[in-house]
Design brief:
By secondary structure, the protein is an alpha/beta fold. The protein has 13 helices and 11 strands.
């Protein structure tokens, strides 16, 4: 476990509504709860998988989870073992920009020297231990290069038009045997012909798992979306106080939705580097077709009460060479 001198923090993004999966969730689970609170495979929800994965590298007291107030009935069940100070409640969802900025302000307030990792809560990661080793490598590199922000990029297996893509440029360094490249350009959900071109060009998927000094990200918000950053000024002076929730309510009532990828990443790609995931099967489970594709790939054709856990999927993959995806 990390020591108090490491200044390593994490943010789990659990504020999405999961509209694309609502029909799928209703069909398979008989309810309309957001996907991150559903156990699509195994007994743990996607949110719990994300938290448990993150806690292998980040102490629980430094791992913040951002949720929407309307989802609190689900969140309270899933986060019953978490300290209340680690749960950041938004009055409503305003997309990933405010969803990152609000907990990021808390991190910086509690530790100005923080290096933070951001984890979306709707991802499927098969080789979790290997994935976490890449997160550790990103942490190590950022600690030695304080101005750097590193995204994890996943190897694509098809020209997916519903994902974000990263086009890389020159190599800038190596950490634990892993090469790190500067970002040339971000492509957010390209059309199918463009996705095919990016795939053939060797571009990679953007997981939105990001490791960066908190202050670097805050400076990017202040520079690129000053209206959003300034809107949170009343919140900044009330953080961790009794008046915070009332101020947040007022701010979110006036706040416009802002997408982090479009507002920050795409507008300043040269501020970011990328570490390429090798030997890790990663999927953004925001689409029912993608979920079924992954389950069929590992010989589990549908979501049922008997659907295995991530660990059982991994054991099956390694025991059966026909389902091994890493050539």
């Amino acid at each position: 476990m990390l020591t108090n001198s490491d200044h390593l923090w994490g943010i789990v993004l659990a504020g999405g509504k999961g509209r694309r999966l609502q029909e799928f969730i209703l069909w398979h689970f008989g309810c309309d709860r957001p996907k991150q609170y559903c156990a699509i495979i195994g007994t743990r929800s996607m949110l719990r998988h994300t938290i448990d994965r993150a806690e292998t590298v980040i102490p629980p007291e430094r791992l913040l989870t951002v949720v929407n107030r309307q989802h609190l009935p689900y969140a309270q069940d899933e986060l019953s073992d978490q300290e209340w100070e680690s749960i950041i409640v938004q009055p409503c969802n305003r997309d990933t920009g405010p969803g990152i900025l609000y907990p990021l302000l808390h991190v910086h307030h509690r530790d100005p020297d923080a290096v933070v990792a951001i984890f979306p809560s709707d991802h499927f990661v098969l080789e979790e231990d290997r994935f976490i080793e890449y997160v550790k490598a990103a942490f190590s590199y950022v600690k030695m290069h304080p101005g750097v922000s590193i995204l994890l990029g996943a190897e694509p297996d098809l020209p997916e038009s519903k994902y974000g893509w990263i086009e890389t440029r020159e190599k800038t360094g190596t950490e634990r045997g892993n090469e790190i490249f500067r970002v040339k350009r971000f492509w957010e959900k390209p059309c199918i012909p463009l996705a095919q071109a990016l795939f053939l060009k060797g571009c990679i998927w953007n997981t939105l798992v990001l490791v960066s000094p908190a202050v670097v990200l805050l400076n990017l918000f202040q520079t690129l979306v000053p209206n959003v950053f300034d809107a949170f000024k009343p919140v900044r002076v009330r953080l961790d106080s009794s008046g915070e929730s009332d101020v947040v309510e007022e701010v979110y009532a006036r706040l416009q939705s802002v997408n982090f990828s479009c507002a920050i990443l795409e507008r300043n790609p040269h501020a970011f580097s990328v570490l390429r995931l090798n030997g890790v099967h990663w999927s953004d489970w925001g689409d029912p077709d993608r979920i079924q594709t992954d389950l069929k790939r590992f010989a589990y054709p549908s979501v049922t009460n008997d659907t295995p856990s991530f660990e059982e999927l991994g054991n099956s993959m390694h025991a059966n060479s026909s389902s091994t995806i890493w050539r």
